[in-house]
Amino acid sequence: MEFNHSFKQKEYVDWKYSALKNISGSTPKIKIGKGNRISYRFYSKQLPELTKLYKLFYKDGKKIIPQAVNLDPITLSVWFMDDGSKCRSVDVYLNTQQFSINDQKKLIMALDKLDLKTKLNKDKIYYRLRFLKSSLPKLKELLKDKIIPSMQYKIEL
Q1: Who is most buried in 34, 56, 113, 147, counting CB within 10 A?
Q2: How far, in Å, CA of 46 to CA of 52, rounded?
Q3: Maximum distance among all alpha carbons in the chain?
């Protein structure tokens, strides 16, 4: 499994590496891509447990959400650091455009179990999840001690 982000997110990659060092197959390294893209990445070892996770979240090479998806504040914080964004201080999103509408509805129900209300929001031709303004205080409370400093720009903490 590859963990790959822009070099601008070096602190985040180092944080992930620190948490996953025991299953890592490499230390983080810079990669120069086409154009001006500079990434920072590392790989995990090939482990049967990771293969099981892959099969749970990918079907025929496409990302899916399993039927029984459970979220906790730590899982949510990593997901938010990866795929969260904001547009103005009151529009906070999870970029879930790669998932089907049905899979996004599963995510809405999983977030609801954390008392976070979201709805589908059209982004050009795709949909993503937007947190309702009424849920932002709860979201910030759940994330406040779990978002690393360099990623706090994604949500005003």
Answers
A1: 147
A2: 11
A3: 43
82 CB-near residues (< 8 Å, 6+ apart): none
pLDDT digits (tens, 9 = 90+) for 139-154: 999 999 999 999 999 9
Q: Does the pLDDT of residue 123 top 90, yes or no?
A: no
Measured between alpha carbons, how far is 99 from 120 in angstroms, rounded to an integer?
Answer: 12
Q: Model-level pTM?
A: 0.90
Q: Per-residue pLDDT tens for 76-120?
A: 999 999 999 998 778 999 999 999 999 999 999 999 999 999 999
CATH 3.10.28.10 domain span(s) along the chain: 62-154
* CATH code for the structural domain at 62-154: 3.10.28.10
